[in-house]
Amino acid sequence: MTVHRVVVLALDGVYPFELGIPSRVFGAAGGRYEVLTCSVDGGPVTTNADFAVTVGHGPEALATADTVLLPPFDTSLLTREPLPGVAEALSAVPAGARIVSICTGAFVLAAAGLLDGRPATTHWAVADVFRSWYPQVPLDPDVLFVDDGDVLTSAGAASGVDVCLHLVRRDHGTALANEVARACVVPPWRDGGQAQYIEHPVPVASANGTSATRQWALENLHEPLSLTELSGHARMSLRTFARRFNEEVGMSPGRWLIQQRVSRARHLLETTDLAVDDIAGQVGFATGTSLREHLHAAIGVSPLAYRRTFRGATASAG
């Protein structure tokens, strides 16, 4: 089994929680990953808490990375230009390595020119600053993470867990990602995006919310599930249901349903030999063609190409 090396570059002002995410998530993947932590000069780094961190490696570790991960640092230290030593350190990263940022780590990548013309995200609270500094980067502050192939960016705090689990899933399939999620006691996939967490009036939780209907929908994905049926199950008018659903989930019911159908289809493509038309029926798409269209829109590949990729990754891991 080939071990994938993840090198975490810790900068002064780093948030301790996010700094520990890669070791925790990748460390639960059964020895498939090795996580090293380095700084730009090999010395200790300050955190945004009342302690510093001594790292085990200097910037030379970046030259050995398969994946480089930049955790966030205190917003008071954000600068438009590259931070001292960072550009030089990143220049050592191998050409084929993946680069991943969490939260304000996206500022480091943008300052280094690594996000020019590429879709990206960062914490919603600093999105306006990011846009003003780096207008050449197409920013989407409404998502938890953006996977642009060899460069991935994620939003604040716990979205670092989301993107690391996504990488495990991308590398080794759903089954292992679910095992890692269980070991870390986190959900393997979170619905919605940052819109759920942006400061706005939040409805008081009650029995009149949409969570029960969402659970019912997940149990009945094979059915067409119109908005009328969903609102009827929730015992709300169409307008009230759509509004409350969007407030709670951060997207429309229709978009959420498609996301759940695609997610279920991906799982079946990875874990079964079912034909594409059969999978489409099980997840509520009318035809195999509809599944192909939605899967391509979501991740840019056909069902068969997706299955080959994950079956190959799983077989290699085994």
Describe the structure.
Pfam families: DJ-1_PfpI, HTH_18. InterPro entries: DJ-1/PfpI, HTH_AraC, INH-QAR. Residues 211-309 form the HTH araC/xylS-type domain. This is Helix-turn-helix domain-containing protein. The protein has helices at residues 16-26, 86-90, 105-111, 127-133, 159-172, 174-184, 211-219, 227-234, 238-249, 253-271, 276-283, 288-299, 303-317, and strands at residues 4-9, 33-38, 45-46, 52-53, 67-70, 98-102, 145-147, 151-154. The protein has 318 residues and is α/β, with parallel strands linked by helices. It folds into 2 domains: 4-184, Rossmann fold; 201-318, Orthogonal Bundle (Arc Repressor Mutant, subunit A). Strands 2-1-5-6-8-7 form a 6-stranded mixed beta sheet, with helices on both faces. A two-stranded antiparallel sheet has the order 3-4. α2 (86-90) links the parallel β5 (67-70) and β6. The longest helix has 19 residues, at 253-271. The radius of gyration is 21 Å and the shape is globular.
